[in-house]
């Protein structure tokens, strides 16, 4: 989850205000929003209010679903107008962007000698440096940037901890190396490498990286009374809306918001668990490895860095798409909105969705929409499930946490000889995939999750992973006891 | 010893504005405070938009932050003694 910093709260306030204007058909007034928000107390960039407003303009553009990479000086109200006219979200544009005005241009040099250097006699730093990059200048260790290879040995060798090894939080968070300091030292994203996991968004303490929202198109769908819009809610929903909100309240709140149906994606997860279990049995006979197909960041990582392993990814569609097919069968003309913890699902919906999914929202965006529509889930009457309504199993719900897919696919009566492993966090996935590609480790089944903790650790969540796991456990225990 | 009642608004608006951080600190209070404080949830205090809201004893704290909640709990406990 985004830690609850000022940055997170600012982002949420922006989403809420934009949604409020959209519901009321008052987006024409949006040009006044940056000023209004600074007046209400958003002043984080201490240099001045004007910079704050300029950054808020970019945040609002992203909330409107527009890009900020261009140089255009277009007014927010005209951007909003275009976006409404456009109807469909422009998915060809990058999902994640750097807010150049907010980027603090953190230092690029990794090794930094601090004031704590006492110019000691031992000079362990100099002795340990494999490239002779350290000399003593002005009574202090000096690192020659031309020679330094940023190995960090000097930092470890100094008895005073006077040498720091620092890295930009964004570049450190990006396991695939898609972020680099570009012109003017402002971070740039290489969208060819980016797997859309969203780790950099959470990592930047300046809130200088953010994602585009599809809020506007969803509100337009919900306002259109001639259109039936169905919400497909990811299994990671457990606990997302706080301790007083259970699934029946989520259903009733979403219906109040205008969705005509609310479907748990865990239903699709149940189907996927079985299908991948059968696939696993087949592949094992052929001596082949199987990877889960539900995490789009994991799949993007394989496609981009380990193409030789692409054949191992399961041919089963993800729970989101399987659920979408189920809903589409019952309601052929309905518009489908996936709501989950994930940013990469936006890309998956576009590239693999075949037009099945009309929009993807995060839990964070949905909550901003609920608040802007004055819906308090904690006070919603719990929806009563109709008889014969399909209910997901505990296994399907557990797709939300790391290890859950593995448990479902390998089954409870796990074959002793099945060698399976679950990894979470993109860096860990990458390490494991490298070993598999080299042939130093072999498995029958690998569950790879781009986010630490699995989906419930995703960037679009509202509660921390611990609280979410607890809520998920409570739900699955109820299931096992047979209580709805 | 009288127990100080603390209730965190768990309404959707306060949730969006970050009541989670407050719940986190309340769940991890030092044992000395845990003995004197009982915390729970309420669904709305009617001050949406000024959240997160927390009731501490009979006082309502708006725009609450974890630090302000802990400070106020300590103040209220001290006042009771």
In words, what does this structure look like?
The complex is a heterodimer of chains A (484) and B (81). With 484 residues, chain A is of the alpha/beta class. Chain A has helices at 6-23, 33-39, 49-63, 76-86, 124-128, 153-157, 169-173, 199-203, 215-223, 247-257, 266-286, 296-305, 319-330, 344-352, 363-372, 394-397, 404-410, 426-438, 465-481, and strands at 96-98, 111-113, 134-137, 140-143, 163-165, 179-181, 187-189, 209-211, 229-233, 261-264, 290-291, 335-340, 359-362, 420-424, 445-449. Chain A has three domains: 6-104 and 177-213; 111-167, Alpha-Beta Plaits (2-Layer Sandwich); 226-481, 3-Layer(aba) Sandwich (Fe-only Hydrogenase (Larger Subunit), Chain L, domain 3), CATH 3.40.950. Chain A contains 19 helices and 15 strands. The model of chain A has no long low-confidence stretch (mean pLDDT 92). Chain B is of the alpha+beta class. A four-stranded mixed β-sheet of chain B has the order 2-1-3-4, covered by helices on one side. The longest helix of chain B has 15 residues, at 66-80. The mean pLDDT of chain B is 91. Chains A and B meet through helix 1 and helix 15 of A and helix 1 and helix 2 of B.
């Amino acid at each position: 989850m985004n830690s609850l910093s000022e940055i997170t709260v600012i982002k949420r306030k922006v989403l809420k205000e934009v949604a409020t204007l959209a519901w009321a058909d008052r987006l024409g007034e949006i040009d006044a929003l940056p000023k209004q928000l600074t007046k209400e107390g958003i002043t984080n960039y201490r240099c001045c209010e004007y910079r704050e407003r300029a950054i808020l303009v970019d945040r609002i553009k992203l909330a409107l679903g527009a890009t900020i990479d261009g140089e255009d000086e277009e007014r927010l109200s005209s951007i909003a107008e275009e976006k409404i006219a456009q109807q469909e979200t422009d998915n060809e544009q990058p999902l994640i962007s750097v807010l150049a005005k907010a980027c603090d241009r953190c230092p690029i040099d990794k090794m930094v000698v601090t004031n704590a250097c006492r110019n000691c006699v031992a000079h362990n730093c100099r002795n340990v440096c494999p490239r002779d990059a350290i000399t003593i200048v002005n009574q202090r260790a000096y690192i020659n940037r031309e020679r330094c290879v940023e190995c960090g040995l000097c930092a470890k060798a100094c008895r005073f901890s006077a040498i720091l090894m620092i890295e930009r939080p964004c570049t450190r968070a990006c396991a695939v190396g898609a972020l680099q300091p570009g012109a003017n030292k402002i971070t740039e994203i290489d969208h060819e490498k980016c797997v859309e996991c969203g780790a950099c968004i959470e990592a930047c303490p300046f809130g200088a990286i953010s994602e585009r929202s599809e809020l506007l198109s969803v509100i337009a769908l919900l306002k259109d009374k001639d259109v039936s819009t169905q919400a497909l809610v990811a299994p990671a929903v457990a606990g997302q809306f706080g301790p007083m909100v259970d699934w029946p309240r989520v259903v009733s709140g979403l219906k109040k918001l205008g969705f005509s149906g609310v479907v748990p994606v865990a239903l699709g997860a149940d189907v996927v668990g079985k299908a991948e279990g059968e696939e696993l049995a087949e592949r094992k006979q052929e001596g082949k490895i199987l990877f889960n197909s539900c995490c789009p960041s994991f799949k993007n990582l394989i496609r981009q860095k380990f193409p030789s392993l692409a054949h191992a990814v399961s041919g089963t569609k993800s729970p989101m798409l399987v659920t979408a097919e189920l809903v589409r069968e019952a309601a052929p003309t309905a518009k489908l909105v996936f709501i989950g913890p994930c940013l990469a699902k936006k890309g998956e919906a576009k590239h693999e969705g075949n037009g099945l999914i009309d929009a993807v929202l995060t839990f964070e965006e949905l909550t901003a929409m609920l608040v802007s529509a004055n819906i308090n889930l904690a006070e919603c009457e719990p929806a009563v499930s109709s008889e014969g309504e399909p209910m997901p199993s505990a296994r399907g719900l557990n797709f939300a946490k790391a290890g859950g897919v593995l448990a479902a696919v390998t089954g409870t009566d796990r074959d002793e000889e099945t060698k399976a492993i679950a990894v979470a966090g993109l860096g860990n996935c990458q390490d494991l995939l490298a070993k598999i590609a080299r042939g130093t480790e072999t498995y029958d089944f690998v569950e790879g999750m781009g986010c630490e903790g699995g989906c419930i650790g995703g960037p679009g969540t509202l509660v921390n992973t611990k609280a979410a796991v607890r809520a998920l456990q409570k739900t699955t225990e109820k299931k096992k006891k047979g209580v709805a | 010893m009288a127990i100080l009642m603390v209730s965190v608004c768990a309404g959707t608006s306060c949730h969006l504005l970050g009541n989670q951080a407050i719940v986190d600190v309340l769940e991890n209070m030092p044992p000395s405070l845990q003995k004197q404080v009982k915390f729970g949830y309420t669904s709305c205090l009617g001050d949406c938009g000024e959240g997160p809201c927390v009731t501490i004893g009979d006082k309502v704290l708006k725009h609450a932050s974890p630090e302000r909640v802990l400070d106020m709990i300590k103040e209220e406990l001290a006042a009771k003694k």
